[in-house]
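Service request form, structural biology core

Requester: graduate student, group of Dr. S.
Request type: structure prediction, single chain
Budget code: on file
Notes: please return the result as structure tokens.

Sequence provided:
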Amino acid sequence: MRPLRLIATLFATLALAASAFAQDVEGSKDHPMFSRMPSYFISGYDASDFGSYDFNVNKDEPKKVEGRFWHIQFAIKEGAKKAGPLQIGRNYTDLIVKRGGTKVVEALDSGGGTTTASLPASAGKGALWLQIDVSNDGDNYDLFVVEEAAMVQDVELTAGQIADALKTKGRIALHNILFDTGKATLKPESGAPLAVIGDLLKADASLKLEIQGHTDNVGAAAANLKLSQDRAAAVKAYVVQTFAIADARLSTAGFGDTKPVADNKTESGRAQNRRVELVKR
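Core staff response, request fulfilled:
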């Protein structure tokens, strides 16, 4: 009877090992919008506040999208019934279509393949892109999701770096001076970059600057022009009052959406266009 007990113990050990292997990898979780297919577990996981992915949109050229990024890998559990590649892909893309999105590409067969869909931007959120890559007849699939968003600027320019740019180029664009949406009210997090401007002006008493405001193209052109002028004026008022800089050393101008530096069709592009520029006078 001892060999039988050993065999039973071996099978029990293997079953426990298989069960442990079928657990989601540590620190992983489903995407907040998309649940997993039944009987699949997370075998790989990567998520970040800012990343990029090249989505399949046609045969020749992928579409690079930047923003909140997820890559979640799924595998079928031991002994479970797997889903077919077409079933897996359409479960995700059909959900996008039902929410007002578009299926961009579907290239799936019984062995696997890929499919891509996108969801338009909505209030407070950028456009969402989704790609499903299925392999091994449906044993495994990869979920790629990017929600378009601009990168949060965590590293600030120093006064010396801004001075060098003004000396060599005569101007510099700043994307970390932030305002309330549609207003000229400075956000609290703008305090740090504005302090750098104050240090710059204190270090060189002869320096005179024009503060220029720029917007994206969301909204009416006339309103954007006025908003850009008001934002430039708000920056000047803050610097003059907070750092005791002479009013005559700073002038302002606003150009609205007339001088874009990036594509206004994407959230990241619009974020680049919403900027304050310093121009040496």
